[in-house]
Design a protein that fits this description.
heterotrimer, A mainly alpha (321), B alpha+beta (344), C mainly alpha (520), A: 321 residues, mainly alpha, two-stranded antiparallel sheet, 13 helices, 2 strands, disordered N terminus, C: 520 residues, Cytochrome Bc1 Complex, Chain C, 16 helices, 8 strands, 57% helix, globular
């Protein structure tokens, strides 16, 4: 196996067994005809979409609904958040309402330390989390409950599907099937891209294509971040976990746009999250990556290291007069 | 010519041709610039010479050999690395040490073991003698003068040159299509459905409030040029106060009051230099171009508010068909993208 | 070996050498040329080697480039990727992009070659720029070297374009964005812009022709031009001999340094090896242009932080800084990118090409110079140079406004505003400071050119001896010396303005050298 695959340290939670994947993709043994495969893929995609459409999905979430948690969350909220977000999350001039924010938003903002925010006017950026994991769970339960009570629930914490096994068979099979549909799309919500995984796992290739279309213009193709207008910073995603990425996509933390379930299916969001995970430690086969910021630091290094060293060499070879 | 084993001999043979004078001059110049008594060579001149010190020269030779030996080892290492599959960092490091060994070896050889520093030589004056210069002018005129009065010849030559010069430019026209009015058209038109990157029509409700999507005219997927010109940003601005054009309502509105969702569509091709304007700041409702930071205020019909762009992003007349799919009512009402001479 | 054996071996070797050179001379009459070539003197100052660094970078680029060209497919034909880089497995891309991925992941040693090539281009342009600055600040472009200045500037232009076309060949998302901007700049040219853009690209953007055409330009056209210009550059240098800094024993009519063979040739070969060493280290250890992270180019996607390579950065920065002015009337338009993209660089390069003429008129200096200026001695020229460098730096910084904003938590609106003012204020301030600094350095008469203890004895033609005094040096204020000391025309007899005959006195054991007939 080549060096690249070894370097791809992908966190697969449950990798499909090779044989299973081969069967699923119409692998080496069982060759399924192109159209039949397309139709079955579309069916899978469609069913995934149906199942995951709507704010509360049938898939498991880790949001607590225990009354104890909600109560503890209430106390924490009143102490730390209500001064800006108002009593019972109704909002104020300083901060938006949280009733329909959803568990995903609460979890995202709290886990990444974006909230609590010192000054309401500041942009919320990643920090060390202020609350402990338990407190976060309690606050999330509280916010989620607000939505449930009002009948306006926001997005729940998404579950990220794992990456498909990249070893040998599955990858090659998927790509050999890609020639059947490539770009053109096979219909069905969410579309089908080259190297498409099933509903149970995602491939990096589909994540890359979704990322390039929806995310790279703000976050940079390598996930290093960028700049928006009004001094709003687009953060780097080097520290983001897959779940946090998925949450951010659904929530659209200011100033990021919102990608709802009708625009990107849960499978696609998982693909994105997995690809961002990959970007945290991408295949830097060429050596030191200089922050993945592109030609600017590269030029700097070329001049300050490359030319400078050669000037020293010239100085040692030549004379000073 | 005497043969000698001494490499620092200043014996200069006289030569018979043009360079003889140079050699003569050269022969009169010392091999070394002699410093006045009591002085020392410049303190930071790194060059010393061991020509008169065989022991130090030998030591230097061994040092140089060690440098070359490093190159030998690295060369072998490179062969091994290649055979086992290659590895960029190993290859780079081995190459670095190999070349450094060779380079340092050469430089030390020149510095320590070879003569020839601090030599002075004459610079010849560049200009030739006045006689030579007038000879050139005379020779040139021999060819020019007889023809200067021959007007018929000169006239016909100019005509031939001009015509053929012009004719030689004609094949350049094969390089590309004629622009015509191509820059003014996209694939959008009356009733063309709005599709996403995979060709799936975009329906009402697919885009959340504060969501953006890159969309294309139906039928353009797979056609690079059509996708490049037709690329459009579909935005759901929710119930924000969008400045609707008084003459054209090119937006799609769903719901009312607080729950209103307004969909607008603008060309994604920046009117400055053509980059895709894909960055959406949903806090300030601005589209930002990453190339040169042109910023467009979406609520004011993508009017440029900062940066080098001077024209708004053209707005796509957006509508809905009976199946609740987005369609364009007409094509863009002005050429998309950057300006050009005939745009006005 | 005994001395006799050594002598016999040496004689044998000499006979062989004589035969070889003799055979050559029989056919080419080469002996005089070879002898004078081998004894040609090159001054040893370290800053003269930077041009060589550039040349060796070019040689390395040719070597690595040839290797890469054997694997690269310059075609926009869409293919589906099926190589080792799994995150792009099954993705549609152009053949050009796919072949570059192939070189990077599936060809042994391919990535190192590619990275050495790209780092080579980066360092090449850095060396050329440094070399240009050295020539400018030391006045080496003065007569008789104006032609070489012109050739050198043309080389700079062509090499910049060569670099641009080179990194655009892989057809990745980053370089493709740059191509889109170039298309728009060409479009904006009045009258002929649309035609030029369609001729160059074959169609409306993006088309399928630009990658194959860039390949022809990058592999064939420009390397030929660079080779030709470089050869002319070196031939003129050979003919005119290298200029040199003033110093003891150095005059306008001699040249002091090492012989080409063996000294200078070996030092130069050593430098070549070291250039290769540095480029190899960069190429293997520091990643450059990881195209696999950008993905293949298409016209509706873009990456944040899209900048060109550093040497084109000033153009990109200029485009970002230029205010949003466009001119429309009578159905015609001069679009915004024309001004910073065509007009400003046009003016800048025209000024640079004309600089020897401008410099001549500023200093009323029409004579030939083989000795260089110290920058402080030409305060105005040095100030202009420093101002120009400030201008380019300001514009280069402007090309990174989004990155700088992200790093320093500043809005790009504010950064751009600062840099807009800085593009004017910066050069003025730096120019003024430089001018003042040069003047005060002149006044201190601090002379870094080392002199031998005890001075240098000079013998004049009538037999008198004197010690070379301070008037050899360059502490004087050069602005004040204009017409008085300069003679037009040939200096065939070597008469210097001070009246000393610059004949080199042979054979005397004590110090002799020519008085400084340098310009002052």
């Amino acid at each position: 196996m080549n060096n690249v695959a070894k370097k791809l340290r992908i966190q697969s939670v449950r990798a499909l067994p090779r044989r299973g994947a081969a069967l699923l993709f119409g692998g080496r043994r069982a060759r399924v005809s192109g159209p039949a495969l397309v139709i079955s893929m579309a069916a899978v995609a469609f069913s995934v979409m149906v199942v995951s459409a709507g704010p509360t999905t049938a898939s498991e979430t880790s949001v607590s609904t225990a009354p104890a948690d909600i109560q503890a969350g209430t106390i924490l909220y009143n102490e730390h958040c209500s001064s800006c977000h108002g009593a019972n999350g109704v909002g104020s001039v300083k901060a938006p309402e949280l009733i329909d924010a959803g568990a995903a938003a609460a979890d995202f903002y709290l886990e990444t330390g974006r909230m609590p925010l010192n000054n309401p006017g500041d942009q919320a950026l990643r920090h060390e989390p202020f609350f402990s994991a338990t407190q976060i769970r309690q606050l999330v339960a509280y916010i989620n409950n607000l939505g449930v009570q009002a009948g306006r629930e926001g997005p729940t914490i998404p579950t990220v599907s794992p990456v498909c096994d990249v070893h040998g068979g599955a990858g090659n099979v998927a790509s050999s099937q890609a020639g059947n549909y490539g770009f053109e799309g096979a219909g069905g919500a969410g579309g089908v891209l080259g190297g498409h995984g099933s509903g149970l796992c995602t491939t990096l290739a589909e994540g890359q294509q979704l990322f390039s279309l929806n995310c790279a213009q703000c976050h940079d193709a390598s996930g290093s971040g960028g700049m928006l207008s009004h001094g709003d910073i687009v953060p780097s995603m080097k520290d983001s976990t897959a779940t946090q990425v998925a949450e951010a996509v659904r929530v659209g933390p200011l100033p990021m746009p919102v990608f709802g379930p009708n625009q990107l299916s849960d499978h696609q969001v998982s693909a994105l999250a997995n690809y961002v995970e990959y970007l945290r430690r991408p295949a830097d086969r060429g050596g030191l990556a200089i922050a993945h910021f592109g030609p600017v630091p590269e030029g700097f290094v070329g001049i300050v290291i490359g030319l400078f060293v050669l000037l020293i060499a010239s100085r040692l070879i030549g004379t000073r007069e | 010519m005497t043969t000698t084993n001494d490499p620092s001999a200043t014996d200069v043979p006289l030569l018979d041709d043009d360079e003889a004078s140079a050699a003569e001059e050269y022969g009169r110049i010392h091999d070394q610039v002699h410093w006045s008594e009591g002085s020392t060579p410049q303190a930071d001149d790194l060059w010393t010479r061991y020509a008169d010190d065989p022991k130090r020269a030998k030591r230097s030779e061994y040092l140089i050999a060690a440098c070359f030996f490093v190159a030998v080892l690295c060369g072998l290492g490179l062969m091994i690395v290649y055979c086992i599959g290659g590895q960029p960092q190993a290859e780079g490091t081995l190459l670095f040490f190999a070349f450094t060994g060779l380079g340092v070896g050469f430089v030390l050889t020149a510095r320590d073991l070879l003569p020839g520093n601090d030599i002075a030589a004459h610079r010849h004056p560049h200009p030739s003698t006045p006689e030579q210069r007038s000879a050139v002018v005379e020779a040139f005129n021999r060819g020019l003068e007889p023809l200067l009065s021959r007007r018929v010849l000169l006239g016909s030559l100019s005509a031939a040159g001009g015509v053929f010069g012009l004719a030689s430019l004609f094949p350049l026209a094969s390089l590309g299509e004629r622009p015509g009015t191509k820059l003014e058209h996209t694939s959008w038109g009356n009733g063309i459905r709005v599709v996403d990157r995979f060709g799936t029509p975009v329906k009402l409700g697919q885009l959340s409030v504060n969501g953006v999507m890159t969309v294309f005219p139906e039928g353009s997927i797979g056609d690079d040029v059509a996708m490049a010109t037709g690329q459009t940003m579909l935005i759901n601005v929710g119930n924000a106060d969008f400045q609707v054009d008084p003459f054209h309502n090119w937006t799609v509105v769903e719901g009312a009051g607080q729950d209103m969702q307004r969909y607008v569509a603008f060309s994604k091709v920046c009117t400055h230099a053509g980059c895709p304007v894909g960055l959406y700041n949903r806090a300030s409702r601005q589209l930002v171009c990453p190339c040169h930071q042109s910023t467009f205020d979406v609520l004011k019909r993508c009017n440029p508010v900062f940066g080098p762009a001077s024209r708004s992003l053209p707005q796509l007349p957006l509508g809905i068909n009976p199946s609740n799919e987005f369609i364009s009512l007409e094509s863009y009402q002005e050429p998309i993208g950057p300006g050009f001479w005939n745009r006005g | 070996m005994s001395t006799t054996e050594e002598r016999l071996a040496a004689r044998k070797r000499h006979e062989v050498e004589e035969t070889v050179f003799g055979e050559l001379d029989d056919r080419l009459g080469s002996s005089s040329f070879l002898r004078s070539a081998m004894d040609k003197i090159f001054p040893d100052h370290w800053s003269f080697m930077v041009g060589e660094i550039a040349m060796y970078c070019f040689v390395i680029l040719l070597l690595t480039g040839t290797y890469l060209a054997l694997f690269f497919h310059a075609s926009s034909t869409p293919v589906i990727y099926n190589g080792s880089y799994h995150p792009l497995d099954g993705v549609q891309m152009s053949e050009a992009y796919q072949s570059t991925l192939n070189i990077s992941f599936d060809v042994r040693g391919g990535l190192v070659m590619r990275q050495i090539h790209h780092w080579g281009a980066v360092v090449f342009l850095a060396a050329v720029s440094f070399h240009l600055c050295r020539i400018f600040f030391t006045g080496a472009f003065r007569k008789p070297r104006e032609l070489n200045w012109t050739i050198g500037l043309t080389l700079l232009l062509v090499v910049m374009l060569e670099g641009f076309t080179g990194y655009s060949l892989p057809d990745d998302l980053l370089s493709g964005t740059g191509i889109r901007v170039v298309y728009s700049i060409v479009l904006s040219i009045p009258l002929i812009g649309t035609w030029l853009a369609y001729a160059g690209f074959g169609s409306t953007f993006p088309g399928t022709q630009i990658i194959p055409r860039l390949f022809v330009i990058h592999e064939f056209l420009f390397p030929l031009i660079i080779l030709g210009l470089l050869t002319a550059h070196l031939m003129i240098l050979w003919r005119q001999k290298h200029s040199d800094f003033p110093g003891p024993g150095k005059t306008e009519h001699n040249i002091v340094g090492s012989r080409l063979w063996p000294q200078y040739a070996l030092k130069s070969a050593g430098l070549f090896m070291l250039v290769f060493a540095v480029l190899s280290a960069l190429g293997g250890l520091i990643q450059i242009n990881p195209i696999w992270l950008y993905g293949p180019y298409n016209a509706y996607q873009v990456s944040a932080g899209s900048q060109p390579d550093w040497y084109v950065g000033w153009l990109d920065g200029g485009v970002r800084l230029w205010p949003h002015w466009e001119f429309r009337s009578f159905g015609h338009e001069i679009a915004n990118p024309f001004f910073p993209g065509v007009l400003v660089p046009g003016i800048v390069f025209t000024l640079m090409f004309l600089w020897p003429q401008i410099d001549r008129r500023i200093y009323h200096d029409y004579v030939e110079h083989n000795l260089l200026d110290r920058p402080r001695d030409k305060a105005f020229r040095t100030a202009i140079g420093a101002a120009a460098l400030t201008f380019f730096t300001d514009l280069t910084l402007a090309s990174a406004t989004d990155l700088l904003g992200n790093d320093f938590h500043m809005s790009f609106e504010r950064l751009i505003e600062i840099l807009q003012y800085g593009a004017f204020a910066g050069p003025l301030i730096v120019g003024a400071i430089t001018y003042k600094t040069c003047k005060s350095l002149q006044r201190t008469r601090a002379h870094p050119i080392k002199r031998p203890v005890g001075g240098v004895i000079v013998r004049s033609v009538d037999g008198g001896y004197h010690t070379l005094g301070d008037d050899h040096g360059h502490g004087a204020d050069h602005e004040a010396h204009t017409n008085g000391h300069h003679t037009n025309g040939a200096t065939t007899n070597g008469d210097s303005a001070n009246g000393h005959t610059p004949e080199v006195v042979p054979s005397a054991p004590s110090a002799t050298s020519e008085p400084g007939a340098a310009d002052d």
